[in-house]
Design brief:
heterotrimer, A mainly alpha (about 160), B alpha+beta (about 140), C mainly alpha (about 375), B: about 140 residues, alpha+beta, Jelly Rolls, four-stranded antiparallel sheet, globular, C: about 375 residues, mainly alpha, 21 helices
Chain lengths: ~160, ~140, ~375
């Protein structure tokens, strides 16, 4: 048997259509999942941040819940605490690359990114001579806010 | 480089004052480069083959003596040693965050300056302005 | 004197016939291609030697055991193919060697890998029209996937009598990728399209690279369980590589295991190329239409690349579609070479690796479909 008869006998067109459809369908599904994978991982790796944000959003709707603390996240406060300790050990003015290296050695993750944030919020300020200083006043204000907020939370949460 | 945001790049301080014809000579030399946090873009002492213009991200120019400058403004220039002798980078540059830069080959840029001195002068003046707005800590890269 | 004549009659010289001689010449020619021209030498050398060994007159290497006598060496080694063991183990090694990052960071290139499998199904129809059975047509069509282990696996399950011709065709065309693909790529693309510089790929995290093989096997295994032997081993090998805690296993899979299986696979595939199976009109049809399948696959991949180029506003260079045939990494290198001819500063290799490895997954899925339905 040859030609079109053979193809029809073996349901060739159906088989070819099925084959192409299944190959495309499975690879499209795979592509869709993989394309979202890094976003899901990003959410997972920063889940604490999102829990905090979600918590603050929810607290905004409840009358006895504490008011949101402000633009600084808990992550930034924690980083400020850690880096202020490092700066205390290194002394001032300090070398920025050395600070980053020391932070990495002590196990602080994403040291480069954290330093960038601290510069952005003026906790680390240049001395215009190539070295940097810690802005103790700004740090104190930030940590004070955190202590006040903690106290307020405890007061409001108390039965 | 085919980029739909050609107009945005034209607004950078380095290119803002270029005439359309001058811009059409410069634009084909531009390439986008993406970097990730902690990536070292430039090593001190290496041959200076390209210079970079920040589009986004935060970068640290640092020297052997521990001094450093941080740059995070769109349009800041890094690696201009590629257009002056001895064509050797004089500092290290590390990305503090993920970022994106425009990259221009030093050799192509020099050729452009040599074939169009008016354009070259405009660009070098802008580069000079940018460099001198930073703290002077040794030679900047 | 009788003993002397008996001995003479038992020599190869006395039993040499034309077909054996022709096959031995073919074997020596393939050996020349492998050693001197370096066409896929790791496979072509053992394959051609297997062809040579099995075509000696009175060669008992592939003899079945009978009358209490054991079978030939290659008969036992061939069990690895017959039972579908060697090709999945080769895939284990391939998975351990392959970096899926270009695919993970640009997953739409999986569609290019899918498009390139169209050649398989078009050739399937053509083979049916030429009088082959559906099992034979599927085994021949899979050559279009340009994936040697997949072609061997499928034909060993569905059409073992065609295994020799299919394997020789598949590996020969894989080796000839630099000659076959460029004219098709140039014919179907414009100079402007070939000059497109693609945006740099994002960096992939370790977690992504670990999760990728797990996700692939979950998705494809649920879609198509018959593809599990091939894809399962491919993803296991990749997991060995990426998880970071099985370095020894990864190295063994890439090196010792892979090399041993390649030797056994090559020599036993060659041993299926005895004159009675190989010197037939069917073989010529297989060689011709295997090439057609490959050409159609390349063209379909490039055309899909053009569609993606339009859809993304010129961000995808259509040339990388040709890498959707799974001749890893040869077709990716061909994309690089063709792209650089028109734009010397264009580096397409990493972008082409995405569809290249996507094609490996695609051809394994295509094989799974044939196994499931036929």
């Amino acid at each position: 048997m040859k030609g079109l008869d053979a193809i029809l006998h073996y349901e060739g067109f159906t088989m070819a259509a099925l084959g192409i459809t299944v190959v495309f369908a499975s690879l499209v599904v795979l592509a869709l999942i993989v394309s979202q994978l890094y976003k899901v991982l990003f959410l997972w790796e920063n889940r604490k941040l999102y829990y905090d944000k979600a918590g603050k959003l929810i607290s905004g709707f409840k009358s006895r819940q504490p008011t949101p603390a402000g633009p600084e996240s808990e992550g930034l406060r924690e980083s400020a605490r850690q880096f202020s300790l490092l700066v205390r050990i290194m002394g001032e003015p300090f070398s920025l690359p050395k600070l980053i290296r020391t932070a990495e050695i002590t196990g602080i993750s994403h040291a480069h990114c954290t330093v960038s944030r601290l510069i952005a919020v003026n906790l680390i300020v240049p001395d215009q001579k190539g070295f940097f200083r810690w802005n103790h006043k700004a740090c104190e204000r930030l940590l004070q806010k955190s202590r006040e907020q903690c106290a307020k939370d405890q007061y409001l949460m108390a039965p | 480089m085919k980029s739909p945001d050609q107009e945005q790049i034209k607004q950078l301080s380095l290119f803002r004052d270029l005439a359309p014809q001058q811009w059409s000579l410069v634009y084909p030399l531009l390439n986008r480069v993406r970097v990730i946090e902690a990536e070292q873009l430039i090593c001190e002492g290496d041959r200076a083959h390209s210079f970079y213009i920040i589009l986004n991200g935060h970068f640290m120019i640092h020297y052997k003596d521990g001094s450093a400058v941080s740059l995070n403004q769109k349009g800041d220039i890094i690696g201009w040693s590629s257009v002056v002798t001895p064509f050797q980078y004089t500092a290290n540059v590390t990305a503090l965050t993920d970022g994106e830069l425009l990259c221009i080959g030093g050799a192509e840029f020099l050729e452009l300056i040599q074939t169009d001195p008016v354009l070259g002068t405009k660009l070098l003046e802008k580069i000079n302005e940018s460099i001198h707005s930073r703290p002077h800590i040794g030679l900047t890269s | 004197m009788d003993k002397f004549f008996y001995f003479i009659n038992q020599t190869g010289f006395a039993n040499l016939d034309l077909s054996s001689l022709v096959m031995m010449v073919i074997a020596l020619f393939l050996l020349y291609l492998g050693i001197s021209k370096k066409y896929e030498p790791l496979l072509l050398v053992p394959i051609s030697f297997g062809i040579l060994l099995v075509n000696f007159p009175l060669s008992a290497l592939m003899a079945q055991p009978e009358n209490g006598q054991p079978g030939g060496l290659l008969h036992y080694l061939y069990l690895g193919i017959e039972l579908g063991i060697y090709p999945p183990l080769i895939f284990l090694g391939i998975g351990a060697l392959t970096d899926f990052s270009p695919l993970i960071s640009n997953p739409k290139t999986l569609l290019l890998g899918a498009a390139a499998q169209v050649g398989i199904f078009v050739t399937f129809l053509a083979m049916l029209a030429l009088g082959f059975t559906d099992l034979e047509a599927g085994s021949i069509g899979i050559i279009g996937g340009a994936d040697g282990p997949t072609a061997i696996y499928l034909s060993s399950q569905m059409a073992p009598h065609l295994l020799g011709a299919i394997s020789v065709a598949a590996y020969s065309y894989m080796a000839l990728v630099p000659m076959i693909q460029p004219p098709i790529m140039k014919l179907l693309t414009t100079k402007q399209e070939r000059m497109i510089v693609m945006q740099e790929l994002r960096e992939t995290s370790k977690r992504e690279r670990i999760l990728f093989p797990i996700i692939v096997i979950l998705v494809t295994g649920l879609f198509l369980p018959t593809a599990l032997p091939l894809l399962g081993m491919l993803m296991l090998g990749n997991l060995f590589r990426e998880c970071g805690v099985t370095d020894r296993l990864s190295k063994a899979a890439q090196n010792e295991l892979n090399n041993i299986i390649v030797i056994f696979l090559g020599i036993t595939v060659g041993a299926k190329c005895s004159a009675e199976y190989f010197l037939t009109v069917e073989t010529i049809k297989i060689l011709v239409f295997g090439l057609v399948a490959f050409i159609i696959g390349t063209a379909a991949g490039v055309l899909m690349g053009k569609i993606m180029c339009r859809a993304t506003g010129g961000k995808v260079n259509p040339l990388i579609g040709a890498a959707g045939v799974s001749a890893v990494p040869m077709s990716a290198r061909v994309c690089q070479a063709v792209g650089q001819k028109d734009n010397p500063s264009n580096f397409l290799l990493m972008f082409a690796m995405g569809p290249n490895v996507g094609g490996v997954i695609g051809s394994a899925i295509a094989a799974g479909i044939f196994l499931a339905v036929l």
